[in-house]
Design brief:
By secondary structure, the protein is mainly alpha-helical. It contains ten helices and no strands. It folds into two domains: about 130 residues, IL-4 antagonist (De novo design) like domain (Four Helix Bundle (Hemerythrin (Met), subunit A)); about 140 residues.
């Protein structure tokens, strides 16, 4: 395979792209202008397209790609179906906008697109859960992915509100709730590691060890504190929201990388 970094890139682009599509759905129902809708749709499509390309490059051989779609019982199947569905429906949404289709049609399409994107994001986190590896056996490790996706959606909607000169109170409240989900997810996962003698060493590596810099700066600062600051700032809101989205991208990339690193260490140093 090309390398774990391509899957980390996929995770980051998926969380960001899925969040953009969720914000797009909210913007569609807020009756925002076509310029804003086209901007969000285009950005979401590009993120998912690049993420899908990164994922496919990791699989390398066409037989492996076909094998994924031939196994609906796997979480990877739903991950790929979600990405493919989100790409097709977001492209259809853009086409409908340019053709000036009825709003009922565009709303149905973007709801389907946001749903496909959410399925892909949830499957991404669930796919990392491996019952035979103690450090990766808890579903709490997927909660941060949901929190980061939600944060991306909130900041994207806040950015859309700023483009429309609309009230962003709901977007800011949503950002606070999303950050709370991320905090709960990170805390629950680390607490579970530390509470188990077989995985306590891995938990310590996250809190104070070799992975602590990636975790505290990459995940906590970039994924929680930076987006919160972006939601709270009263000046340069467009810039701050954009910076917050970059923080979400970095946090998603590093959280996926941490899972790979901690899983690899567990494979070598802990009993399966």
């Amino acid at each position: 395979m090309v390398g774990d970094w391509t899957l980390s890139l996929f995770a980051a682009l998926l969380c960001l792209g899925s969040g953009l599509l969720a914000a797009l759905a909210a913007s569609e129902f807020s009756n925002f202008t076509e310029r804003t809708l086209k901007t969000l749709a285009s950005l979401g499509f590009v993120c998912l397209a690049l993420g899908g390309l990164a994922a496919v490059s990791n699989l390398e051989r066409p037989s492996m790609i076909l094998g994924v779609f031939a196994n609906p019982a796997s979480r990877l199947f739903w991950e790929m179906i979600g990405v493919a569905g989100a790409l097709l429906t977001s492209a259809a949404y853009l086409a409908a906008l340019f053709r000036e289709a009825d709003q009922t049609i565009t709303r149905v399409i973007i709801l389907l697109s946001a749903l496909f994107a959410f399925v892909a994001t949830a499957a991404l986190g669930a796919n990392m859960v491996m019952s035979w590896r103690p450090v990766l056996s808890s579903y709490t490790l997927m909660i941060p992915f949901i929190g980061l996706y939600w944060t991306a959606a909130s900041l994207s909607f806040l950015l859309a509100c700023e483009l429309e000169d609309a009230d962003g109170a709901k977007a800011r409240a949503s950002s606070f709730a999303a950050s709370a989900v991320s905090v709960i997810g990170f805390s629950a996962y680390i607490a579970g590691l530390l509470a188990n003698p077989d995985t306590s060493e891995a938990g310590q590596q996250l809190v104070t060890g070799v992975l602590s810099l990636q975790f505290w700066i990459g995940c906590v600062f970039c994924g929680i504190l930076l987006p919160l600051a972006a939601a709270l700032l009263r000046k340069a809101r467009k810039l701050s929201a954009s910076v917050g989205l970059i923080g979400v991208f970095i946090a998603s990339f590093l959280w996926q990388s941490i899972i790979f690193d901690i899983g690899r260490a567990a494979w070598h140093f802990f009993n399966p």
